[in-house]
What does this fold into?
Amino acid sequence: MKQYNGKKDFTIEVPKNVKTILSILEGNGFEAFAVGGCVRDAILGRVPDDWDITTSALPQQVKDIFHKTLDTGLQHGTVTVRMGGEGYEVTTYRIDGEYTDGRHPDSVEYTSNLIEDLKRRDFTINAMAYNPSVGLIDAFDGIGDIERKCITCVGEAEQRFHEDALRILRAIRFSAQLGFEVSESTKEAIKKLAPTLEKISAERIHTEMEKLLLSGHPEKFMDAYELGVTEIVFPEFDAMMECPQNTPYHKYDVGRHTVEVMKHVPPQKVIRWAALLHDVGKPKSRLVKDGRDHFYGHAHVGSKMAVEVLRRLKMDNKTIKTVSRLVDCHDDRPTQTEYGMTPEAVRRSVHKIGKDIYELYLQLVDADFQGKSDYGMEKGYDSYCYVKQQYEEIVAQGICTSIKEMDFSGKDLIEIGCPLGEKIGFVLDDLMEIVLKYPEKNKKEILIEEARKLI
Ligand code: ATP
Ligand code: MG
It folds into this structure.
């Protein structure tokens, strides 16, 4: 350990299990450090997701020392050590070989020098190591970059992006998670090498894009646009950034409006994807009439495009389905009657959109208003607040808005002699109509009577 000049005055709270692993490795004559994201996050006062450990011990030596291990990534030198009921990735110091494919090294080579291992890491803030007895090893001024709030590559940016193009997207995602700026030299390299993101698998792009989307600064999607990154990984966003909205309802173009909407929904997967994609159909639906822009049918066009985008990113089917439903309905409003907005209109809206996503729909509609002009707000926000309050009533009182929730089923229909076949569906639809109009009629004996009249 003596060869490193650690910053001793730097102390980081290290969890007990991690301390134990570090000291067992040291006790066996090896070097060991917490490294990467956990050190960065601990310095920033953020709670690290996981604690990674880097060591001079070879994978086999790690396996010999610890009782409970798992071969998670032996080809990269990683062994998972179980400690206190949790798993910790312990990786041997390594040097990455040539990158001929722009994705992964052709080979990896172990080394006994920590600094060599830190050199292969992407950004200076991710290239620090810490051990309680040695202190902080910061060979590339990660601390300085944390102070300057700056994302910058370890070494020469162009070369580092050339090795692994995913780092381009990672730079922007870290800037969004931490509220940092990407340094000028790193930005220049991104502009030049963004097209090489073509080589990166959809799964890896998905992971980074989702982290950017769920971050505290989803507006960094606009940086990704300016640097030529979305053009490769999400060209639909470029079309949104380049789509004006010349209407009194809006004050931003579609891209900027989308960013505002993302910022106003909670950082959760489904709703953030829905916010990102809610107006994706607008560029294709734009129609200029009497000097104003109209976007008829954009929600429906957008819901189909959302499916395409998410399939391309290898999103799971359940998320695709829910996001595309939300995009499809985001512009729907309960139909006003001659008496204005009524509880019945809201019940019908919940029936149509679905109780399972209504809460998310309301979040999206609210955020959509926040990204509009004052005129746009004035035109509809009061009515939105009424709908929300009525929806809360529906939930609180358990008011039926779907056939599934009705106090009467297809089975009951058959029992009273309804013929099998499509008639069953028609009668249930008619009963649903009655219940939507008169919620108090959702009682089995009443619905049996009504059903008898219908069969
Ligand atoms: P988080 O886990 O919060 O997303 P992290 O910094 O821990 O952030 P990981 O992807 O878990 O990121 O990677 C752990 C560490 O491995 C990084 O901090 C970095 O040092 C290194 N690393 C990860 N991916 C790359 C890469 N593509 N190129 C170079 N180094 C990388
Ligand atoms: Mg991590």
Notes: The chain has a mean pLDDT of 94.
